[in-house]
Design goal:
Keywords: Oxidoreductase. The structure is a single chain. By secondary structure, the chain is an alpha/beta fold. It has a domain at about 20-210: Rossmann fold (3-Layer(aba) Sandwich), CATH 3.40.50. It has 11 helices and 11 strands. The protein has helices at about 20-35, 70-80, 95-100, 100-110, 155-160, 175-185, 210, 215-220, 275-280, 300-315, 320-325; strands at about 45, 60-65, 85-90, 115-120, 165-170, 190-195, 220-225, 230, 240-245, 245-250, 290-295. The strands form 2 sheets. Strands 2-1-3-4-6-5-11-7 form an 8-stranded mixed beta sheet, with helices on both faces. Strands 8-9-10 form a 3-stranded antiparallel beta sheet. A hairpin with a 5-residue loop joins strand 8 (about 230) and strand 9 (about 240-245). Helix 1 crosses helix 6 (about 175-185) and helix 3 (about 95-100) crosses helix 4. The radius of gyration is 22 Å and the shape is globular.
């Protein structure tokens, strides 16, 4: 049992709009950190700019709100300089995918041992309702009054394209599912990307209507668990099977299909082909994939850097500045 409770990680009074998905997620993060059991004094939460980036103010841990899009860079430096810290980066879809997009993919490519929390509401909320890099084509907003003419980024696609080893997804209103995803991210050694689907009640209050309520999730999502058959539906009456190079939804009992015919989820498979297909499923023909989609071990950047420093230091004749000076010709002036 953890010696901590959610209260140990709480601080201040959250200042978000009533009903904002940030409230739901913050409560789950407090609970998850308590269950993870790492002390608040050994935890750092770092954000950029945006509504969700206010979250560090409400954490009784080391915390820092940085500048727009640079949370991953600061989190990287924090982890490399303090490898014993549990580091959590919080970004919105604008902060993380637009100005912070380059930092996002390179933190994943380097496999920094940080937890990247992407709170995706498909809108710029803090700056009052402009479309974001994850807004769907045709989305009408203050900055696209006739609908966007762009295709959106899909966070999973960027993560996998950057050779990401961990990707998970949850819905902010699903407390139990969110806590489990956060705990899995914390136990993963390396860059762990968690996409959190949430609503902005002011500017995009129907972004994920099909899965935002419990009833909708039962019908329109699949909660993936490693080693378990890919079943979903209110009574697990549907499942996923392979069809050619793709996937198809089937109903158990029809055409002689049984649970034995259903694909089994392998989050640890090095080949990410099927994992990516699962992450990119979208309606109306397919369920939204939730849970841990990919979780593969690999060397981390921070471990490699410190190992390299130790290796090179052992070969050097000097180990500090004074010794460095003594390696050259010296003389004494009287």
């Amino acid at each position: 049992m953890s010696e901590y409770t959610a209260k140990d990680f709480k601080k201040g009074q959250p200042r978000w709009c009533p009903g904002c998905g940030d409230h739901f997620f913050l409560a789950s993060l407090h609970k998850a950190m308590a269950e993870i059991g790492i002390a608040p004094s050994e935890t750092a939460v770092i954000s950029g700019i945006g509504c969700s980036s206010r979250l560090p103010y409400y954490m009784n841990t080391y915390a820092m709100q940085t500048i727009h899009g640079r949370a991953a860079a600061i989190a990287t430096g924090c982890k490399v300089a303090n490898p014993g810290l549990s580091v959590w980066q919080v970004s919105g879809d604008g902060d993380g995918m637009a100005i912070g997009g380059n930092h996002f993919i390179h933190a994943i490519r380097r496999n920094i041992d940080i937890n990247i929390l992407l709170l995706n509401n498909r809108i710029y909320g803090l700056t009052k309702g402009q479309y974001s890099p994850t807004s769907p084509r045709g989305f009408v907003s203050k900055s696209s009054p006739y609908g966007t003419v762009e295709d959106p980024f899909r966070p999973a696609e960027l993560c996998f394209g950057a050779r990401g080893r961990f990707f998970a997804r949850c819905v902010a209103t699903d407390a139990a599912g969110t806590v489990e995803v956060l705990k899995a991210a914390a136990s993963h050694k390396g860059a762990a990307v968690c996409e959190i689907l949430q609503h902005c009640v002011i500017f995009n209050d129907n972004a994920y209507d099909n899965v935002y309520k419990k009833e909708g999730r039962a019908k329109n999502s699949i909660y993936l668990q490693h080693g378990k058959p890919m079943l979903f539906g209110e009574n697990n009456e549907y499942g996923l099977m392979q069809e050619g190079f793709g996937l198809k939804v089937v109903k158990l009992g029809e055409n002689g299909i049984t649970e034995k015919d259903i694909l089994v989820h392998d989050a640890h498979c090095m080949d990410n082909t099927l994992q990516l297909k699962l992450a990119l499923m979208e309606g109306p023909d397919f369920p939204v994939a939730l849970g841990v989609i990919r979780d593969v071990d690999a060397p981390t950047y921070n471990d490699a850097v410190h190992a390299q420093i130790e290796e090179i230091s052992e070969k050097k004749k000097y180990h500090n500045f004074e010794e460095l000076l003594m390696t050259n010709d010296i003389w004494e002036v009287k």
